[in-house]
Amino acid sequence: MAILNETELEQLEKVVTDYPNNEELDLTAFVADVIGITGVHTEEGWYNQDINETHITFYFMSDEDIDFSEDTNEGEEYYIQVDIWSKRDCFKLKKKVKKLLKKAGFTYFAGNDQYEAETGIYHKAARFYFTMNVEGDN
Questions:
Q1: Which residue of 21, 33, 92, 124 shows the fewest CB atoms closer than 10 Å?
Q2: What angle do CA 25, 27, 30 make, to 5 degrees?
Q3: What is the average per-residue pLDDT within 12-33?
Q4: Between vectors from CA 112 to CA 61 and to CA 25, what angle results, nearest 5°?
Q5: pLDDT digits (tens, 9 = 90+) for 70-120
Q6: Taking the CA of residue 68 as centre, how many other CA atoms within 13 Å lie in the half-sphere pointing to its CB?
Q7: Average pLDDT over residues 119-135
Q8: C-beta neighbour count of 128 within 10 angstroms
Q9: What Rg do the C-alpha atoms of the chain give, in angstroms?
Q10: What angle do CA 109, 112, 86 make, to 5 degrees?
Q11: b/e string for 32-64 if b means 16 or more Cβ within 10 A?
């Protein structure tokens, strides 16, 4: 069975089409909409103790100018971390999030899964980077 069903693939295609890969891209909204295809509550930030159900958070770790031509960058690279928080192991959900983001143009480069015994929470982290095309700034 495929990780993403036909409906999810159609939703992803629409989201990717709706967001331009240039300086006009609202990367926060784009990430939220891509991950939101899972149907799991998604928000920017860190663990939300007020949500007692599985939820996904993401935050921007860093960014940098890349692809220089004549002393001007033609791209920006953004590094994000996506975290899944749940009272149960969400291995398949993490695979789905990875697949969605990779199909949306993100590159997966690291992950970490842990169980936080003191809270009874499974914490699955995944790190990605995304390259955005820009006109360039000096």
A1: 92
A2: 95
A3: 91
A4: 35
A5: 777 777 899 999 999 999 999 999 999 999 999 999 999 999 999 989 889
A6: 6
A7: 90
A8: 24
A9: 16
A10: 125
A11: bbbbbbbebebeeeeeeeeeeebbbbbeeeeee
- Token pair in block for residue 1: 């069975």
- At 121, list the tokens: 């929470």
Question: Closest Cα partner for 49 from 82, 88, 81, 85?
Answer: 85
Rounded to an integer, what distance in angstroms lies between the CA atom of residue 74 and that of residue 134? 5
Angle, helices 27-36 vs 6-18, to 10°: value is 170
Averaged over 49-60, what is the pLDDT? 88
